[in-house]
Request: fold
Amino acid sequence: MGDEIKRSDFIREIIAEHNRTGRFGGRVQTRFPPEPNGYLHLGHPRAICINFGIADEYGGICNLRMDDTNPTKEDVEYVEAIAEDIRWLGFHWGDHILYASDYFDALYDYAERLIELGKAYVDDLSPEEVREYRGTLTEPGRNSPYRDRSVEENLDLFRRMRAGEFDEGARTLRAKIDMASPNIVMRDPIIYRIMKVPHHRTGDKWCIYPMYDFAHCLSDSLEGVTHSLCSLEFENNRELYDWFLDQLDVHHPQQIEFAKLEFNYTVLSKRRLRRLVAEGYVTGWDDPRMPTLAGLRRRGYTPESIRNLIEMVGISKANSQVDIAMLEHAVRDDLNQRSPRVMGVLDPLKVVITNYPEGQTEELEAVNNPQDASAGTRRVPFSRELYIEREDFMEEPPKKYYRLSPGAEVRLRYAYLVTCTDVVKDPTTGEILEVHCTYDPATRGGDAPDGRKVRGTLHWVSAPHAIEAEARLYDRLFNVEDPYQGEDFVDNLNPSSLEVRPCYVEPSLAGVGAGYRCQFERLGYFCVDPDSTPERLVFNRTITLRDSWAKIQGR
RNA sequence: UGAGGGAUCGUCCAAUGGUAGGAUACCUGACUCUGAAUCAGAUGAUCGGGGUUCGAAUCCCUGUCCCUCAGCCA
Reply:
């Protein structure tokens, strides 16, 4: 699927150049390093596709490595969820998930080595003092008074840090670089801090934990990663990434940064996503309105559609805000190819075919997928009483309305041409209760033998045969392009992002299970929710079909 | 105003000194047993100012705007 299309971008060009010059002996190995502190969301597939995709293209491997160096923020709960999302997207890693914490022993040894090299020292400054000494963006920092301790003293102190002799925050191990560096990252960055907190994997073995900058580059190095592909905010950290590896004289991967993806009408920050869940604006991390991969999956998005989107959007170093319409196009495009068609009515209006024999039923043949002949056909029951969509009838139709109206003839898809003869209304409210039509028996299947043209084709279900189900109609979670605008982003929540309503679907749907995807003709793509029971199906609307009539109406 | 990055159709991405192209969105039309899909067409951009060059989105100078960094987060 699209594999023959030659992808190229600045990262692949750099790697191709490395391979030309033999920088890594032609080997390409990457890694995807999520911190297990939240669910994967729409911002992640780009990094996933780049790292796993590139490794794959070059016949290399991509490790899934949990970046778990801060036990106060991370939890095993997220590990399996992250792994499942990546698997769902269709990517594979080696035998098992890797963890930065797997390297805590090696990392500790590297830290001692740095001390021995005179490139690291134990600092007694308090967190506040560290901040003061660091200087500012425009002023250089000052050296810590503890900066020039002897190697022996540093080693002793560091070992005692490890042994738990000091309180949290009392001391840190810092790299000895340059407190006047114009790059603040290089002003003697902290590499180990004391945290008397058990770790979800190493238990209480450690009370000191390495910082990201130290752990990350060395984890990459230890694994033999060749290309460490990460997002733009780590550009400033690359100098430090390189510094550690140079000092320690170990295998040195190349870090390359690319821009993260953002989407309009969408919020992706973990903090805000967490708030939506915590404050009950959505039902959970996998609420089908959430931009999490779990939410999109439940909503009915396919992994292929997400991967196609990533390919469509490309890669660059410019911050970008992708139009969510691109995502919507990607799902429609994929679902159009693969979804079986089915008829369902969301807002029923009863139709009585007055000249159709009472009690008669017949089965009509319907095409399962016009995009895919191999999907075959099915039989759909037809009878005297049907339901059609309420908006498919208008007593006083506007111009260009070619659905049902008094005197008008339309086609009931795969069934008959019918003409509206009567409208039955509630005498007090004026509400339309039912519509009476006559059918033309000569048009069975939907074709007129005399060749007369009928513009409108409606979907329908046979009232006595229909299955009653629940439809969950989703719309964008936010109704403004930039949900961050204004005082509080929750003010921009779309109050009608979910509408739950009963619906009628054709009987062929009986027995389909959670995750089943289909198109309700003329309405959109739907996916069976895990909340479904054999007694009551629940359909999530993944996305509507494009609707140019609605567009005309809107003007 | 220190350092590191970035600026091309509304949006996203190409063009690597030689016709600014594709995707998406929007608009027209054709086709249609889904007002879907498909097909055809239109609209629409090089951040500003200088310079080099036969020729500049690309190279040089200059200005502007945007992003990231002052966690013992990642």
